Amino acid sequence: METSSLSVLIDRSRNMNKKVEFRHLGKMRYAKAWDYQTELFDSIVQSKLENRKRTDRGENAVSTNNYLLFVEHPHVYTLGKSGKEEHLLLDQQGLEKEHVEFFKINRGGDITYHGPGQIVGYPILDLDNFFTDIHKYLRFLEEAVMLTLQDYGIKSGRIDGLTGVWIGEENDPNPRKICALGVKTSRWVTMHGLALNVNADLKYFGNIVPCGISDKAVTSMEQELGHQLDMNEVEGKLKNHLATLFEMELFENQEN
After folding, report:
1. Which end of the chain is less crowded, N or C, counting CB atoms within 10 A of the terminal residue's CB?
2. Going from the N-terminus, what domains does the chain have, and what CATH number goes with each?
3. What biological-process terms (Gene Ontology) are attached (predicted)?
4. pLDDT in tens, 9-43
5. Roughly what angle, to the nearest 10 degrees, separates helices 231-246 and 134-151?
6. Which class for 86: exposed (0-12), middle (13-18), buried (19 or more C-beta within 10 A)?
7. Catalytic (active site) residue 179
8. pLDDT tens digits, residue range 43-74?
9. Catalytic residue among 33, 211, 234, 242
């Protein structure tokens, strides 16, 4: 019994793949990016199902792929599975007037905004390659953002019971959310992710109840520092912090 358990652990360790392909999608409409990450997500899940068949036949499993996508969306509101549609404060005519799209999607969480000046990160990882702990996964995403903000002298933290990254001193009566999180997992494969407000136009948050939280404000790095930031520079820092925390072997496919 002990020998069998040990061999399973050895086999799992042998097949863990910490290589992560980074792809920057540039500026892309939400629906296209959703389809893009779904295709990658489904391919990893399918690989895991095929691995189960291999091991049932006594064959060795093959390593599964991992991806990290960065993208910048045109103005869009997305509503998670547990969200309330009344948290969108615009009707269809209002959305058209503001030139904003709206999607109900399959991540957790409530409603949020994506738009220019915001870094949206979609880690599509097989957590069997890293650790099988969703709580730890979310905390690592938050920590990568907090370390990035620290690089710019912005002090940030967490609020008990709420996901995301917040600005404000301890016990501050008016904390400000600077990064939202919303993920989906299946068979320990992740999709969706984080949205960090860098130079985002915060007026668009006025058309929603952000993340279903009505009594807290939203902010951006530009708002906190009083000047715009270089998006490429911030992206580079965030990417490096994610790679360090997850112990990723990050590489970029120049063909994408």
Report:
1. N
2. 2-252 (3.30.930.10)
3. protein lipoylation
4. 434 555 689 999 999 999 999 999 999 999 999 99
5. 140
6. exposed
7. no
8. 999 999 999 888 888 888 899 999 999 999 99
9. 211
